[in-house]
Amino acid sequence: MDRADAVGGRRLVTAEPVEAAAPGGLSRRRRRQLSLGGQYGLFLAVVVLVALLADWDRLRANFANRDVARDLFPDIITVGLRNTVVYTAVGFGIGLALGLVVALMRLSPVAPYRWFAAVYIEIFRGLPLLLIFIFITVGVPLAFGSPAPGGAVGQTGLALGLAGAAYMAETIRAGIEAVPKGQTEAARSLGMSAGRAMSSIVIPQAFRIVIPPLTNQLVLLCKDSSLVLFLGIVLEERELTKFGRDLAGQVGNTTPIIVAGVCYLIITIPLSLLARRLEARQRRGRR
């Protein structure tokens, strides 16, 4: 349909776009609608087929047995969940402190510091975390004559911290570099030393920038704490994965593993939602 407007004595004629018909007489929009409807229909058909073929009584008995789940409480909370939180918190604390040091070394004008930080980051980001756990439990006693202090908490925290520091260092470095240079220049003009400006002005702003990725790193460390099952730990030191695995073997049922997974989700889902909300808030603040 044509539309005419009088502008400055001239007539401008514009034509509304007409969607070309695709071969077969269907417009592109209609074909997209049919394709989307077909995908929804296929998904629904697969769900219905699985629901009809599944042996729900057997699945309920082996994966959601109420009696087995009831016997897990309160130990799965007071032992498994508590130890998971403790291991994660210790590992995150070590990783954050060490990551800050490595990030500052990465930005240092002293070349050996930069080299050391670069090598550390590449090594611990490239090694499997399980190998780091094995090194902490086997290599540290051989090298120093005694295991890492703190028992399972110390060993797990050190392994998680060494690995997490490599990732946190790069995150913190990016946050420091994201702080405008004018902040440092303004602080120096007020008579602050370079170290004082970094600790009082730059680093606090950098941490506000990197809180969302650090929260994601906390979620990863929480899941990685499950590798403690490869350590020689006593019953009271078990975290969720070790707790669920041991109980599943004892009762011959996978319900303890499912309950342990739900406990992990209780920790990780709120942290993931928090990280996404913080990221969204930062995006709105930059507009």
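Above is the first protein from milestone M3; the second protein from the same milestone is given next.
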Amino acid sequence: MEIEVTRDVIAAMRAAAIAAHPREACGILTGGDRRITALVETANVHTCPQANFEIDPQALIDTHRSAREGCAQIIGYFHSHPTGAARPSQTDREMAAHDGKLWAIVAGDELMVWEDREDGFRQVPYSVA
């Protein structure tokens, strides 16, 4: 199943990845109906941000609260791989919640979207809206 990602969100993810380099950038993807319409860029609070990411818990709480109040829903998460490929790393696979959320990963000029399924990550095709 294909999803749509707005051009602005793609630009924001790429800009965040460049700005954070050599650390991993991260954020929360929001929207609805298989359409990613916004990126909530967050601090990477992991103790080793050069090789891992952890979304700021307060930002996650705030975004969940906004969604409950009728704002855009959390579709998934974004992070960058400063030195790797735009595929889930071993660490990503170990930390995944298997909750069906989307993970957008930026590595250099490459952007790939993955669905975090119970049986592991599966690549999701996307179109630019």
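Note on the second protein: DSSP finds three helices and eight strands in the chain.
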